[in-house]
Amino acid sequence: MSTNLKIALRFLLFKKRAMLMTLSGITFGVAFFILTQAQTSGFEQFFIRTVLGTDSALRVADRFQDTKASREIAASGDPNAKLRIETLRKYIEGIDYPSRLREMLAQHAEVAASAEVLRGSARVESPQRSADAQIFGINLRDFRRVSNLEDQIVSGDIALFDKSPQGVLVGSELARRLNAVPGQILTLTVRNVTQRFNVSGIFETGIGDIDKVRIIAHLGATRSLLKRPFGATYLQVSLNNPDLAPAVAERIGPLVRHHIAPWQKRERVWLEVFRMLRFSSAITVSTIILVSALGMFNTLAMLVIEKTREIAILRSFGFSKGDVTRIFLWLGWVVIVVGSVLGCAMGALLTWAAENIPLRIRGIFSTDHFLVSWNSQHYLAAVLTAVVVVSIASYFPARRAAHIEPGDIIRGASS
């Protein structure tokens, strides 16, 4: 152990009560920083998993045609004209030849699978109630490859849905509003066309906006109800790496001549909300560390005043200004190290406790416990915040201590 560190520890014990208060603040600040980041990131990761498991990484929809004006802008070679070209294109709703488009997409290595979806609005009636809904016609074999539908079934049997041409899967919130249960008959009406369907199962994605309106039916039955004998509304496309969805969409879109929306663009509003929640919670909890650092600054400033003679004696024994600075910085670093270790341990304990608290949440999200994310970056960010703030708070008293001249103190004491 170096001499500077030994002296720093003696100074630390001299102000042990004040240092314990600062240490407690750093510990709690780091712990709550980790906890809040784990919670906000947990809900964000849950949302992303649900989006990818429900609507996939890419959505290929309307076919586009370049107009004369858009071709002229493209020919000009202006690198900033991309948005103008998109606004001048002519878009044709839906997909006329989904099978052909799926074959084109399958030629790209990034594409894992695709499935066509036919969507329409309908009025659904049960023996007790009625509600507005969105019907999604799918080919179950293909749709299983681009979604987590099988894992989202909470009641009923997806195998029964597979065997029943007139079977439907109903979102959990919509089923609750209709008092619908597996085996019950529902009536769907679209523009005076009415068909009866049998509830094969109830699914829950965990996102209320989806579960309260969505009904999944077989593609053939949906075509009959919507009077759409061919084509599709869009294709769901899963990727080997969903994080690359924007780059893949930008590269493939012009080749297939269809508008492609990556999940990051479709859910941009929610992703921005989560980002702001993480940022605001980090700022809020960091105030605990900031207040503790101010306490550290005050404690070290008082220590410099009270230990002026000792500092002068050290300087007269040959300690340089750098040595004195390091002694007081060591005080801050000891608090940082101990507080960070204790804070990380407490943060992990609090995160584990939050994850295991039984708490039924229904609304925007559906879950039976707090959602947390175990990420080492949360711990690193908390420790770095503590290091920066406490180091700055320790530097100025250390700098002041280093500029004490031993001759002035000794002459003042003798006089």
Q: Overview of this structure, please?
A:
With 415 residues, this protein is of the alpha+beta class. It has two domains: 3-51 and 270-414, no CATH class; 95-232, no CATH class. Helices cover 59% and strands 20% of the residues. The strands form two sheets. Strands 3-4-9-6-8-7 form a six-stranded mixed beta barrel. The longest helix has 40 residues, at 16-55. It is elongated, with a radius of gyration of 32 Å.
Keywords summarizing the entry:
single chain; 415 residues; alpha+beta; 2 domains; two-stranded antiparallel sheet
Major sheet summary line: 6 strands, mixed, barrel
How do the strands of the widest beta sheet line up side by side? 3-4-9-6-8-7
Please mark out the parts with pLDDT under 50 across 5 or more consecutive residues, or reply none: 68-73
Count of DSSP E strands?
A: 13
Percent strand equals: 15-25%
Secondary-structure content class? alpha+beta
What value does the average pLDDT take?
84
Helix content: 55-70%
For the record, the count of structural domains works out to 2
Number of helices: 18
Cα end-to-end separation? 37 Å
Which value, in Å, is the CA radius of gyration?
32 Å
How would you describe the shape? elongated
Short précis:
The chain is α+β, with helices and mostly antiparallel strands.
Topology readout:
Elements: H1 3-14, H2 16-55, E1 58-65, H3 68-76, H4 82-88, E2 90-92, H5 98-106, E3 111-125, E4 130-138, H6 140-143, H7 149-152, E5 153-156, H8 158-163, E6 167-171, H9 172-178, E7 185-190, E8 193-203, H10 208-211, E9 214-218, H11 219-226, E10 234-239, H12 245-256, E11 258-262, H13 263-266, H14 268-306, H15 308-316, H16 321-355, E12 358-361, E13 367-369, H17 376-402, H18 406-414
Helix pairs in contact: 1-16, 2-14, 2-16, 2-17, 3-4, 14-17, 15-18, 16-17
